[in-house]
Amino acid sequence: TAQFYSKATNLYVKFLFCGALGLIPLVNLAFPYLVDPQYQSALSIVPIYILATVAGILSTFLNSILTAYLKTTSIFYCTLFACLTNVATVHLLIGPLGVQAACISLLLGYLVGDGIGIYAIKKQIPFQFDTKCFLYMVPLLVGFIFVYNRYGAIANLFMTLLALGIAALLFRKYLAQIGRIFRRVRSSRKTNK
């Protein structure tokens, strides 16, 4: 089970990462068509909220692993420290950052909860969380957010295509398996006719 949870978590993190990479430039492209121009200032908040959502989804996933091991006390501590981090940082940052403080605090709270969750899981099973993936994830996310905030539609369209390419690269083994399955299904249909 430890190997299963490790592999599932690492794949899930990569999938969430690819989703965030693709969603960030897509929001920039769709925002003018979906949101009234008077709310244009909200555009800068979206990427951090996307990252906070990803961290929150990961938190739920990690908590489900802890639930499987009946470690509800660990879940309580993950939630408590995430909450305390969120509340403390929003009070510290609201003055200098304004509304941005809320999404940054939410992200930091979830990251603290995720860190505690990973630590708690590692105490239960020989859980292998791939921290090396953050060596490319964090710079890519920073780059995508930079382009999102500084450049227009053409650059964000390029970033969307780049996100698809990165996802194809990260999941090439699984895409190849899916391709083989489709070829088998297609060839079996031809032989059945």
Keywords:
193 residues; mainly alpha; 7 helices
Question: Can you describe this structure?
Answer:
By secondary structure, the protein is mainly alpha-helical. Helix content is about 85%, strand content about 0%. It has helices at about 1-35, 45-70, 70-95, 100-125, 135-150, 155-170, 170-190. The longest helix is centred in the N-terminal third of the chain and has 33 residues, at about 1-35. The chain is flat, with a radius of gyration of 20 Å.
Amount of beta strand: under 5%
Query: Which ranges are low-confidence, i.e. pLDDT below 50, for 5 or more consecutive residues?
Result: none
**Averaged pLDDT:** 91
How many whole angstroms does the radius of gyration measure? 20 Å
Helix and strand content put the structural class at: mainly alpha
Terminal residue distance: 43 Å
Number of strands: 0
**What percent of the residues sit in helical stretches (DSSP H or I)?**
over 70%
> What string, H for helix and E for strand, traces the elements in order?
HHHHHHH
The biggest beta sheet reads: none
SS element count, helices: 7
- How would you sum up the global shape? flat
SSE topology sketch:
Blueprint: H1 2-34, H2 46-68, H3 72-97, H4 100-124, H5 134-150, H6 153-170, H7 172-192
Summarize this structure briefly.
Helix content is 84%, strand content 0%.
